[in-house]
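Hi all, long-time lurker, first post. I run a small reading group and we've been trying to get comfortable going from sequence to structure in the token notation. Rather than ask abstract questions, I figured I'd post a concrete chain and ask someone more experienced to write out its structure so we can walk through it together at our next meeting. Sequence below, copied exactly:
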Amino acid sequence: MIVASILLLTALHGQAQNSPFSPPRATLHYAPDRTFDLLNISVDLDVDYENRGLVGHAVNTVAPLRSQLTQLQLMAGKALNITRVTVDGVDAP
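-- Answer (accepted) --
Happy to help. Here is the structure in token form:
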């Protein structure tokens, strides 16, 4: 039983050293300051199985956390192609 425990701990230690989430490969990442509260997300997707793609429409309902909020920073993946952004039905600059 003791030998099995030692072997398991040795294997787990080896995995931890190769993990991208263990030092020295891991780096600190801090969340950006929030300027708005995301209240709701409504998503409508069309899946293109043949071409392995998605086309969709998303509506984010937000509430400002500070007065005089003039801009929103939305986080999106590199592969996400955003073609249009509107605010209250009006195209955003």
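A couple of things your group might point at:
The helical segments are 2-18.
The mean pLDDT is 81.
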